[in-house]
Each structure stands twice: as structure tokens, then as C-alpha cells.
Design a protein that fits this description.
Belongs to the TonB-dependent receptor family. 5% of the residues lie in helices and 55% in strands. By secondary structure, it is mainly β.
Length: 879
Amino acid sequence: MKQKHSYLGILFLIMCLITVPNNLFAQAKNTVSGKVLDETGQSIPGANVSLKDTGKNTITDENGRYVFTDVIAGNYVVEATNVGYKTYSKEISVKEGESVVADLLLETESQSLKEVVVTGSSAPRSKLESSVAITTMGAKAIEDRAPSSTAALLQTIPGFVVEASGGEIGNNLFARGIPSAGAYEYVQIQEDGLPVFEDGALQFANADTFYRLDETVSKMEAVRGGSASIFANNAPGGIINFISKTGQNDFQGRAKFTTSDYGMFRTDLNLSGALIQDKLFFNVGGFYRADNGVRNTGFTANKGGQIKGNITYKFDDNDYLRVNFKHLDDRNTFYLPIPLKSNNGKIEGIDGFNPNYGTLTSVNFSHLNVPQYGGGTFSADLEDGSHPVINSIGAEFKKKISDKVTFKNAFKQTSIDLNYNAIFPNGGPWTQDAYATSVQNTTASNLTYSYVDNGATLDPNALIMRADLWHIEKKMNNFANNFSFSFDLDPVKLTAGYYYSNWKSNQYWNWNSYLVGVSDNPRLLNVKDNTTGVDHTWNGVERITWLERDAQTKGLLNDIYADAEIKATDNLTFNAGLRYNKDKYSGYRDNARFFSENLGILDNNTADDAVTTVKGNPYTYWRYDVSEWSYTAAGNYKFNDNMASYVRYSHGFRSPIEESFYDNAADLSKLENTEVNQFELGYKYSSSFFSVNANLFHMNLKNVAFTDILSDGSSENKFADVNNIGLEVETNARYEFVKLNFTFTVQKPEYDNFTGTNADGSTFDFNGNTARRIPKFFCNLRPEVDITKDFTAYVQFSYYDKKFTNQDNKQVLPAYKEVGAGLNYTYKNLRFAVDASNLFNEIGLTEGDPRQTTSAASDVFMARPILGRAFRFSVAINF
């Protein structure tokens, strides 16, 4: 009911704004306005626009829009400039009482250092004058990259190791060599400056689960390190901000249809325009998509969509009030490690299992129904996959109070209902001999294996394994508000603000183990002991509810921050930032009885002998307070309009993650915030044909938590320090009809203070080892060729050096490369494209199996490779 009232409230506000008499919106006479566009008609935010010989200058907003008011009647030249684009001038004539619309077209030269960015700073500033490492990408560049997911787009950013092998959602990002359990633990994903959810590393709720790329996106800005800890919580690794399109006076629309060789049907639509000219604007769009997934599950792997939009009322002096909303309802299959083998160092698939398209997720066991302790039945549907239903509503208000002071406030209320179902490998693969002796403590000859669906006997040489259906329900909500005052005290620009956020995540887990034959589209197995007559499975379920969890985590954040920009000279700028976090985390956890309950329902069957239950047990309530300072200082020197260099030091932190609170709820004394200290030296250069952005960094991290969930339901629960030194480089070049983008990262992340005792009493010493899942070198190379003015071809080459599955550095994940390619053709307002990924079906491993605790007793191992070769075809129309 509350959700319904929220939407009614938005509708009422829209109607009120539309029906206000037009004379209230009357603007000053004689205006000149328009948009700055590139060759394809896409808007260019941050372009410089001037009305020659009048002293009037401005910068285009996030939709490429500019406006000059109180223009005296006469003839003028309006000029648009942006480094990376050729200067464009246009003659106009302004008559008394007239509003002139003049759109300006810029032709691309190279990447711009004058481009204005807003992420990780208190006020918009050009890249040239920004003392942070930042990568930006507009709507056209995003479309040209043709990313299959949010994570796939982020792979283009140097310094970020992004694993996109999980499919469309649930992927992992490691910033500047910071190892973690995965997710977005040290980076915050934002939508228009506010987090998609306050914590992006909740269990099974990775931040990219709640964000989808579509035609409503105007721009992506990604800050690495630097000032991120001043402008976001728990984000010392960086901020990734997706900026939405807003409306303009002229009505514009874009529709797109996409299909693929894996059964995709996708439609995208975005509409924008003015409800009241020059005053009230709208943008609304979204998508619907269904496909079978690159890996064949036997059912529709991805199905759903979203709608999002905003309404903006413009005051004078570029002040505005904006209301925005989003509704996402999407289902996605999450891919996990599969069985592979090594042949003299070369990774190959095993017999009957395709390494590029196979998955343990199968329609053959998509529906689960098992009895429960205390009565009743638990049910789960694998075809639901990861299924978030998200509703968010927010607003943003900016008002210039005086010539020196500007006020800005933004808030967002988000509610999420996440129903998560995925198949996790959890033991094996075993030979049948190994399973009998290691798991059932008997001899192989005593056991018989048969398929559940037809009763046929399993081939004696076939491998078997556990494929768990992990079911998680999460009820989440988050209210976030950020307000600030900005003071223009030339030569100092000062911003002071207050950030408030409260969030809650209630979660319930119920995990069950299937026993399956190891093959593509695997089938369930039943196991029987012929000597005793005891069954070890029940309809293919080997362990009923072997793990159950009921827990809650809440956060209450009250943070103040300040940021100062000091223009010491025309060329030298200093920046300093400070943030104080006064945060409170609390919640409860169950005290489940692990493997302790015998349901007693199944006769002569061990599947219900070791059930875990939370029922009848007390809860442990916990609370953890955070009082931390984050700070940064930087200096940027501009040698000329094409070259600058900066130096920055920053100190930030990351609060303990959800799993750490659960594991240590009875005694939180061992928990500490992860302290992150960074030193950066940056260099930026741009000319009409070449640009480079290089960043040398050193990171020192104290008390990094390792909390992977193991196959027995326990957590690693280990802590260590990490040191990393590295270099990130991003280059762009253009010569006539050829463009080249090249990014690379070289680094050396190593453990320190990482010794201790394992659960079995053995000791470990990982000091000096390379941080897990982090390659020392990775790069992306993308040449583009304009075959004709309207016909473009590209190749995308990526390379990742070898890395290690675990802290002991014993299991190596070999180096691999991936090649993609595509063509796009533009005819008037139509764009046709074909894009291919992993053209040569490389078996590139992004992770091993961090949950593995048992020996396979064979040459087969578990790992998660990148997705196989896939083709996507699209056609888009602008109108």
C-alpha cells in the first residue's frame, strides 16, 4: 500500500506542475539556448559555449544543454569548444522578445581534458584541473562498447579487475589490487550521485544486481581512489557514477531492438522533451529482455526489465528541482565454477561438458521441494534465478541562494525484494570410488547409482558431484539524503555537507545439496547402499537443508564532510577534503544447530539425517559503532591547456562487511575497520590526435577481511594487511579514420601480517604472497576504423596475466586473452550493429572454487571461465 501511495504522490506532483498557469513560468525575454551534439546526434556534457563579444560563457549540463538569458537583440556568433572536438561556430540573429534555439555540432578529434566531471568532487571541474584518476564514457561510447552487462562495461577501466563471468549480475570488482570475498566491497556504484544501495557487498546482493544499463544512461564517470572516501561511504577504492538523461525543449526519442545467437529478445526505449517549454522537462525509458543465456540451462535464463524516469523544473540561473523514479523487475541466472581439466598446462573441458557453454545449472532440477524440521515443506524455483524487485523514488534540488552561496539537496528511498536461487558446486567432482570412500565411508562396490528421471544406471566411469541449490531471500530498504552548501570565496571554493543514510537487510537462507552426474545439462542421481538397503539420496537430494540462516543487518550513518578547492595561481590548484563518519551498525543472527537434526521422515535414508535448523534457538543481537576520519590533500599543476600533473594523498576506510558481523556476533572485539592509505601521482596530456592519463599509486591496507563461505557453511574469517604499488595508464589516439584506445595496469599486491592457525590446528604463513584473484598485469586494446563516414569496424583485445585462487598461491589460474569485434553502420537516423564477444572461445579462468574443501580424487578441478563466443545484433532509431 505504501508503494502505491508513493506512485500516487509522484503523479499528483507531476499534475500540479503541469497545471500551474503558464504565466508563472514566464522567463526573461531574448534567450539563446540549445544543445551541443556529436556527429551521431548524442549530447556532449561539459562542453564550453560562449556568445562571442558579450562576455557570456557557460558549460553544457549533463544532457549537453546550454542557455543564455537577457541577450540584447542583435547579431551574434555562438561558439562551442571541447578538447577532443573541433571548435564549432554558428551565426545567429536575436530579435526583441525572441527565444533562439541553436544546436551546435562538434566533430570528434581526441579525448577531452576540458570535459567537465562531477563525481568525486564538490563542484563540476574539468578533467585537466581534477586531481583524481577518472575515466568517463558517454552514451555513444557505451553503445559502441556493446557491453553485455554493467560489469562488462567496467572492464574497460584501468585499475579495476572486473570478473564478468557470472553473467549479467552478481559479478566482482577488485579496485587497485584490494582482495576481497568479491562483490563491490571497496567501490560504491552510484546512480545520479547516490548509491544504488548503501552497501554494495552484502551477501548475494552485489551492487550490480541492482543496476542495469539501458538507453536512459547519459554518462558513466568512474573515480579510482583519490577523493572517493570523502564523497562516498566504504569506498576507498573508488566511485562509479551512472548519470541519467534528462529532458530538453525539443522532443527526442530513441528505440532499439537487440537479438542474439542465444535467443535474445530485447527492446529499449527512451523519450524526453518538455512539458512546458524552457521550464518543465521529462525523460522516461526502460527495457524488456528475455534470453536463454550464453550457457545453456534449458530454460529462459534472463527475463524482465525496468522503467525509470525523471521530471525537472528549471528555475533561473540553472537552478532546478528534479524528481526521479525507478522500477526494476528482472530475473537472471548466475553462473558459477564448472568442472575442467589441465592438459600440460592448457585448460580444457572434460568429456561431456562444454567449457564455453556448459553449466551445472539445469532445468532437470529447477524445482525443489523438501520436508522441513517442525513440519511443512520448503520450495524453491531455480528458474527465478537472482530476482530483484526494486522500487526507488527520489528528488534533487539545487538553488543559488546568493552570488556566493549555493544549496543542494538530494534524497532517495529504495526498497528491494530479492529472491535469489543459484547452483553452487559443493564437493567433488568425485570418481565413484572416491565418493564411496571419502563421503559414504564404504567401498565402491556397495553403492549403485541411477538417474532419478528414468532409473537408468550411471556409467561406472562417470564423475559425480554435489550441486547445491542455494536459496536466499533478502528484504532490503535504504533511505539516503545528501545536502550541502557551496561557497564561492574566490580564490577558494568551499563545500560543506551532511550525509544521512539508514538501511536494513533481513535475510533468510535455505541450502540443499543435489547429487548429479558431471555433464552438460546434468541430471539428478540416486545412490543406494546394496549391503544395508540404505538410500543416500531422496529424489536426487543428498542433504536436506544442510544450512539454514536467519539474520539481520542495519546501518545508520550520520556523516559530515568538507571539501576545499584553492586556486593558488592560474596554473596551480590545491584540493583538501575531510569526512567524519559517526555510523552505527546493528542486527541479529541465529544460533543454528548445524547438521544436528534428524527429521525422521525418510525411512532408511540419510538425506534427512543431518538437517540444520534455526527453529527453537535464541538469537544473538549485536551492535558495532564506527567513528572514523577520512581525509585527502592534493595539488594539481596545469602546464598548459593540454597538459597537467597532480599529486594526492588520501586516507579512507571500509567498515566490516555483513559476513564478518554474522561470524563474530558473539564477540565483535576482533573486528576492525579496514584502513586504506593511498599515494597517487598523476599525469594528463591531450592533443588533437593523442591523449594519455597515467596514474602511479601506492596502497597500504590494514586489516583486510577474508570471509568466503566454505562448503561446510563456515567462513574463512581471516584478516591480513595488503600492500600494492601499481601504474594505471589510459591512452587514446586518432589519426584520420583510425582510432585507438589502450589501457593497462601493472601492479604488485602482496600480503603482510598474514600468519595464523587454521581450524584443523595447522599453521599458515602467507606473508609476501600475491593477493588472490588479482593479476599483476592486465590490459585492453581497442582499434576502430571508419571504413566510410558511416561504417565503422572495431576489435577489442583483452589480456589478463596469471593469478591465484587462494592466499597460499598454490592453485594458479593461467593467463588468458579474449578477443571481441563488431561492425556498425549509420544511415540517417538508423544505426545497425553486430557485436561479438570471445570470438575464439578462449577458456579464461576468472576464479577457482573458493568453497572447495574436498579432494576431487581425479585430474578434474573446479573453476569459473568467461562466457563462450556470442553474437548480438541490434538496430536503433533516433526520432
